[in-house]
DNA sequence: CAGGTC
DNA sequence: GCTGG
């Protein structure tokens, strides 16, 4: 009966869950009212951002001591203090204005499928596709509407195993609006199963960045850019820089990169990414995430009519607020942490030599970025 | 058009 | 080249 609940005392400037849960890293979190609902591992989790920090609770029963607190710290990458090149004014300003973004550490398998779905796609549709895949997983908990007008507003489901995913057919996926990605899903599931299933994906975490990307790219629907996304958010490869037109555009504008946005050949991709990595330093992947977010916000503001100046804290996708209630009994989100994290710190600090990344690019970095230990 | 891949 | 906003 003991519900796991507590609060992570972190400032919104360090972690802003409204941003990181809907900006295109992870796709199965949903917000009802002020509460975010999602799944981390086998935990059905509710989160609420308060002034004091992020309140959390686990709503599926059996986890009185699941180490949820330390899992969340890992999930939101809170043990990391991101390193910003000190002479990069553009980046300092961006981080100051678009604060609270983290490099999430997501489930490798879910992330792999997320970004296969991401090609030529937008967040809302990726979300519906990932919800479909998630619907094949174990039901952990369930929210019902108190009005019963709209039952089952949210089902917390563990992401299915490769074995389960491999049973999906192309027709079924196409019927679920996966489009041409249906074939990718079917082929990749079979390949992973052949390679050894879930454990094969897990072992990619311990591979070197370059090797992990190479192995990922052997799978259908995973090219260079998608592999970088998976490596960054699913495998904790901090040197990974998913390169797309948005990033090239902003680098052209703010970092004196002089590259065409289109026609990205493998050689060009490697060359550009190598230079950006040198420019942005140890946490290049996180930098990419922040600047990408900034770029999307700017392009959104451009689209809007100039006269309607909305408050920036107001979510654009605001819908009718629905009162929700947890299956069993509502969980108190206020209480202090009752979780003893006996697992201890999960993350060991290790220094990865970004210089080891092989590149054929002879050019200088775009700006001098001083490495400093914090 | 949307954070490409084959 | 799939499909929704």
TrEMBL record:
A GO biological-process term: nucleotide-excision repair
UniProt keyword terms in alphabetical order: DNA damage, DNA repair, Glycosidase, Hydrolase, Lyase, Multifunctional enzyme
Signal sequence bounds: none
Reaction(s) this enzyme catalyzes, per UniProt: 2'-deoxyribonucleotide-(2'-deoxyribose 5'-phosphate)-2'-deoxyribonucleotide-DNA = a 3'-end 2'-deoxyribonucleotide-(2,3-dehydro-2,3-deoxyribose 5'-phosphate)-DNA + a 5'-end 5'-phospho-2'-deoxyribonucleoside-DNA + H(+)
Biased composition (Basic residues): 302-313
Family annotation (InterPro entries): DNA_glycosylase, HhH-GPD_domain, HhH_base_excis_C, OGG_N, Oxidative_DNA_repair_enzyme
Enzyme Commission identifier(s): 4.2.99.18
SUPFAM superfamilies referenced in this protein's UniProt entry, alphabetically: DNA-glycosylase (SSF48150), TATA-box binding protein-like (SSF55945)
SMART domains: ENDO3c
Pfam hit, one: OGG_N
GO MF annotation terms: 8-oxo-7,8-dihydroguanine DNA N-glycosylase activity; class I DNA-(apurinic or apyrimidinic site) endonuclease activity; damaged DNA binding
Top-level EC class: lyase
Residues of the HhH-GPD domain: 139-295
Taxonomic superkingdom: Eukaryota
Gene3D superfamilies, per the entry: 3.30.310.40, Helix-hairpin-Helix base-excision DNA repair enzymes (C-terminal) (1.10.1670.10), Hypothetical protein, domain 2 (1.10.340.30)
PANTHER family: 8-OXOGUANINE DNA GLYCOSYLASE, N-GLYCOSYLASE_DNA LYASE
Protein name: DNA-(apurinic or apyrimidinic site) lyase
Source organism: Oikopleura dioica (Tunicate)
